[in-house]
TrEMBL record:
<dbReference type="InterPro" id="IPR038709">
    <property type="entry name" value="RpoN_core-bd_sf"/>
</dbReference>
<dbReference type="GO" id="GO:0003677">
    <property type="term" value="F:DNA binding"/>
</dbReference>
<feature type="domain" description="RNA polymerase sigma factor 54 DNA-binding">
    <location>
        <begin position="268"/>
        <end position="414"/>
    </location>
</feature>
<feature type="domain" description="RNA polymerase sigma factor 54 core-binding">
    <location>
        <begin position="79"/>
        <end position="261"/>
    </location>
</feature>
<dbReference type="GO" id="GO:0006352">
    <property type="term" value="P:DNA-templated transcription initiation"/>
</dbReference>
<dbReference type="InterPro" id="IPR007634">
    <property type="entry name" value="RNA_pol_sigma_54_DNA-bd"/>
</dbReference>
<keyword id="KW-0731">Sigma factor</keyword>
<keyword id="KW-0238">DNA-binding</keyword>
<dbReference type="GO" id="GO:0016987">
    <property type="term" value="F:sigma factor activity"/>
</dbReference>
<dbReference type="InterPro" id="IPR007046">
    <property type="entry name" value="RNA_pol_sigma_54_core-bd"/>
</dbReference>
<keyword id="KW-0548">Nucleotidyltransferase</keyword>
<dbReference type="Pfam" id="PF04552">
    <property type="entry name" value="Sigma54_DBD"/>
</dbReference>
<dbReference type="GO" id="GO:0001216">
    <property type="term" value="F:DNA-binding transcription activator activity"/>
</dbReference>
<protein>
    <recommendedName>
        <fullName>RNA polymerase sigma-54 factor</fullName>
    </recommendedName>
</protein>
<keyword id="KW-0808">Transferase</keyword>
<dbReference type="InterPro" id="IPR000394">
    <property type="entry name" value="RNA_pol_sigma_54"/>
</dbReference>
<keyword id="KW-0240">DNA-directed RNA polymerase</keyword>
Amino acid sequence: MDVRSKLTVSQTQRLHLSTGLQAALQVLRADAAGLTQYLEEQAAETPALTLQPVLPPAGEWLPRWTGVLPHSGPDELAALAAHGPSLIAHVLAAIPDLVSTPSERDIAMALADALEPSGWLGRPLADIAAELEVSESAVEAVLVRLQRIDPPGLFARNLAECLRLQAQEAEVLDPVLDQMLGRLDLVASGDWAALSRLSGAPEALLHHHFRVIRSFNPKPGASFAAIASPQREPDLIAREGEAGWLVSLNKSSLPALAIDPEAEGAPRAREVMRLIETRNTTLLAVARAILTHQQAALAQGPSALRPLTMQTIADTLGLHKSTISRVVAGTSVDTPHGTWWLRRLFSPDMGADTAAAALRTRLARLIAEEDAAQPLSDAALADALCTEGAALSRRTVAKYRADLRIPPAHRRRKS
């Protein structure tokens, strides 16, 4: 057999991004937190570039729950609760029926202030008690009341408590299930032998309880406000002015840049400044185009969202669709109805100029207002939504309901 080596010459094409282009793409798709980290890294490497924190002007932006809740009276609570099926509106509507004294109300507001988008409590009770100058037992007594708010699992302090609250509501919490919830590490690893030794229960019973645990919702707050972003400083602020809706950068979410032209690395510092200015200009242009299209939602809430695609915004601004996708990735805007992800404001047309995201919000509202003793089936929900002009099938309603982490009618029924 004759084996010979052979040399061949061929041409190939590869796309190679320069360092400058890579940096531009990184900056373009960064949210406020990512951009701040990038600037800190650049300042550490470039002596000519320094960062200075920016304090927000008085009244420009405050964390929504911290700035509003402690000062809200009954009228304000009712107004906030009327905005739609958001987690905070749902909780605020329930609090007046669960507390009776001003002291209890203050504690309830502080607990609501600490509620995370997942529905869990985000602060230790000891910190809340110290802040209000009350006993920890008084805070815990109010917490127990707030944990009665539907869906079960809200205001849990950890995953085990969240699942235990749901098991109590479903009346399935027995000693074996309680012990399993106390050792979720063994449940997660599937160490059934160890769990069987601890509980004295056969593995078949443990497998049955495991299926029960999996039927629970570990994040009961996630079914509210599908377009809402986690509580954090937004990248943009949308407010209604005399000339219409105004969209601006949240200057307090980013540090200010200062350049020393005499220091080492001044050209690099100016390049970083140029990248940031380009990013901010593009972000503002894209956000203004999106929110101009969604003015009804800004005024009325997510249920008024209109159909919108990234290609529509790209054509409007003369940009590529991929540029729009990068800009809105992880970017949020503070509105009168909460802080929203820009990406969630894009949604397909479901008929009658109605966006799919708006139908999800209306679906959540219908379920929130239904008779708990006779919950609406998916078919009934589809009929109710179709009366508004949208073309929606039962299967689509079931999909939207699953996306919102809402159980089917037979599991929502309460006697």
